Amino acid sequence: MEVPKESSIKKLEETVKYMLDDGSMEPLDILQLIDDIHQLGLGYRFRESTKCAINKIKCSEKVKEKMHNSIHTCSLYFTLLRQHGYEISADIFENFKDHNGNFKESLSQDVVGMLSLYEASHFAYNGEKILDEARKIHKYETQRNAGKY
Asked: Using a CB cutoff of 8 Å and minimum separation of 24, what contacts does 53-59 make?
């Protein structure tokens, strides 16, 4: 396998920085790109670009609208803001609870959303019960699917 040349790596980095700054790109796609960059362990290379992108997304009405309907978007938004030191309330997950105060049963069908919610639960502050509940639901669902319940 051939190792990429330094110039190729620089070009790829510039492309990613351009994508993070691209005003025509959907905010959710930028959030996903930032998450992918972090999962690859490359977040340190794009700190400034990521910070600028998150600042723009925080003000995006598109993301706020999407968060009301998508547990994945809401969780990803929450996780990335907490990871980058922004204050964000766990109350944004209240929209996904039913009239009894439990997470809606329909969420269990959204595997990506539930995984995102579980990841977000690891950024809970002490006393954020809604995120503690999310972690417990994930544990229960995992054990139930493994046949333990």
From this structure: 53/20, 53/21, 54/80, 54/81, 54/84, 54/86, 56/23, 56/27, 57/27, 57/30, 57/31, 58/86
- Evaluate whether 30 touches 57 at the Cβ level (below 8 Å): yes
With bands split at pLDDT 50, 70 and 90, how would you rate the model's confidence at 1?
Answer: low
CA distance 49 to 64: 21
Topology given in CATH for the domain delimited by 62-149: Glycosyltransferase (1.50.10)
- pLDDT at residue number 117: 93
Q: pLDDT tens across 52-88, in order? A: 999 988 888 888 888 888 999 999 999 999 999 999 9
Q: Where are the domains of the chain?
A: 1-59, 62-149
